[in-house]
Design a protein that fits this description.
The chain is an alpha+beta fold and 188 residues long. It is elongated, with a radius of gyration of 26 Å. The chain has a 4-stranded antiparallel β-sheet with strand order 1-2-7-6, with no helix packed on it. Strands 3-4-5 form a 3-stranded antiparallel β-sheet, with no helix packed on it. The chain is built from 3 helices and 7 strands.
Length: 188
C-alpha cells in the first residue's frame, strides 16, 4: 500500500463526511453516466406557476417564487437544455415533488456535484451499473464491437482488423503491380 493511500478508517470517515454533506443539501440527486436527476419537496398546494425553474446550458436555478432558490449556481459541465426537463408531481404524503432531469452533453463523465458551490462527492467511488451494447450510441457501439473483435483475434493468434486491412491493401497493390517481386519482402 502506498504511503498516501487512506487507511480503512480514513476512508470510512471520508464516506461518512460525504454522506453527511449530501444529506444536508435541500435537494436529493443521483446520476447515470449520461444524465442527472434532482428532486426536492414543496407544499402540496403549490402549482407550477408558483415555481421558478431556469435550466440553462451551464446554470441551474430552481425554487419557489418570492423565496431564496433551493438550487442556484453554475453546473460543473454543460447540458442539453432542449433535452432537459422538469415536472411537479404529487407525493403520497400530500406534498409535491419537483423533479429536474438534466441531459449531460459529455456522456462519459461523472459529476462531483450538481452545482459548483455544492459539496463534492468522490466520483472514483461510483459503481456504475453494467451497460449493454444496445445502450450505446451507434458510433460508440461500433468502436466497442471492433475492440472486442480485435481482442478475440489476438487471443486466437489471428490478425486484428487493422492487420487485415493492411494485408488487403498490400494484396491489392500486388495485384495492380504484378511486375514487382514481393517474394522476399518483409512487411511488418
Amino acid at each position: 500500500m502506498a504511503d498516501n493511500d487512506p487507511t480503512p478508517e480514513q476512508e470510512a470517515a471520508a464516506r461518512a463526511k460525504e454522506a453527511e454533506e449530501q444529506a444536508a443539501l435541500p435537494y436529493k440527486w443521483n446520476q447515470t453516466i449520461g444524465d442527472l436527476d434532482i428532486n426536492f419537496s414543496v407544499p402540496g398546494n403549490y402549482k407550477s406557476r408558483d415555481l421558478v425553474i431556469e435550466i440553462k446550458k451551464q446554470k441551474l436555478k430552481a425554487g419557489v417564487k418570492g423565496q431564496d432558490p433551493i438550487i442556484d449556481g453554475d453546473l460543473p459541465h454543460a447540458i442539453y437544455t432542449e433535452e432537459s426537463t422538469w415536472t411537479l408531481t404529487s407525493a403520497p404524503d400530500g406534498t409535491k415533488i419537483v423533479e429536474i432531469h438534466l441531459d449531460k452533453i459529455n456522456k462519459m463523465e461523472w459529476w462531483p456535484h450538481v452545482i459548483t458551490s455544492a459539496p463534492k462527492i468522490d466520483v472514483t467511488k461510483i459503481q456504475p451499473e453494467n451497460s449493454k451494447l444496445s445502450d450505446l450510441d451507434g458510433e460508440t457501439r461500433g468502436m466497442v464491437e471492433k475492440m472486442m473483435y480485435d481482442q478475440r483475434q489476438k487471443e486466437m493468434g489471428l490478425p486484428t482488423s487493422e492487420d487485415q486491412k493492411k494485408a488487403d491493401i498490400l494484396k491489392k497493390f500486388q495485384e495492380q503491380h504484378p511486375e514487382l517481386d514481393f517474394s522476399n519482402a518483409k512487411v511488418n
